[in-house]
Design brief:
The complex is a heterodimer of chains A (207) and B (10).
Chain A lengths: L1 H16 L7 H14 L10 H23 L1 H5 L10 H14 L6 H15 L2 H9 L5 H27 L7 H27 L8
Helix pairs in contact in A: 1-3, 1-8, 2-3, 2-6, 5-6, 6-9, 8-9
Chain B lengths: L10
Classes of the chains: A mainly alpha (207), B little secondary structure (10).
Chain lengths: 207, 10
């Protein structure tokens, strides 16, 4: 739900302000790759109606955001292209290699799924780099990144709960480790987010 | 067989 909220916040910003200033297209494209490689089992592995609907929402909304940033006349003009310089392959290639080395089963779908877990952990980096370069971070963008970080942190709590409460729950070290790293990457952002919230000031990251 | 807790998350 926090993940869904983050997407709603981002779409709200882009749609109402007709601006994507401070939003990293690189991160959005990495997320698109994360969802495509993770949800390849959309039609073959039915978990629940909720699960299927959420997968479709995450996939379509991410491509919708990318369309807005690349294709929409007004939104496209507000994109900070010169500041959003992070290279995709810096993250994609190491994650691919890691997925080929560390996985639970050597099948195409499983390796791609593992790749998506690793890539998700670091997909926020271009956004955080761009954020540091952006002087005026608007509230919606700040809250968007907060929700995006919070959902993985909440997963950590959920994993602990499931580990103790569910009978047939198996340890999933790959997901846990990646989730911990993903949350740790946000630690610095969370610190400044709460600091500005407490002081009732605009969010600002130190250079 | 479906492994509980492996691919049932988003």
């Amino acid at each position: 739900m926090t993940h869904l909220a983050s997407i709603c916040l981002l779409l709200l910003k882009i749609h109402t302000m007709k601006s994507c200033a401070g939003v990293s297209l690189k991160t959005q494209e990495l997320y698109a790759l994360v969802f495509v490689t993770r949800y390849l089992d959309l039609f073959s592995n039915f978990v629940s109606m909720y699960n299927t609907i959420m997968k479709i929402i995450f996939l379509s909304s991410t491509f919708g955001i990318i369309w807005y940033m690349r294709g929409h006349k007004l939104v496209r003009q507000s994109y900070d292209k010169e500041q959003d310089t992070f290279r995709h392959y810096f993250l994609v290639i190491p994650c691919m290699v890691l997925a080929l080395v560390i996985h639970s089963k050597f099948t195409l779908l499983e390796v791609l799924w593992t790749f998506s877990i690793y890539l998700e952990a670091v997909a926020i980096l271009p956004q955080l780099v761009l954020l540091q370069r952006t002087r005026n971070i608007d509230n919606l963008t700040g809250n968007y990144i907060f929700c995006l970080g919070a959902y993985r942190a909440l997963y950590l709590l959920n994993w602990i709960y499931r580990y103790f409460m569910e009978k047939n729950y198996h340890a999933q070290w790959i997901t846990w480790m990646a989730g911990m790293i993903q949350t740790a990457i946000y630690a610095d952002f969370f610190y400044y987010y709460f600091k500005s919230w407490k002081k009732n000031e605009r969010l600002k990251l130190p250079a | 067989a479906q492994r509980t807790g492996s691919h049932d998350e988003l």
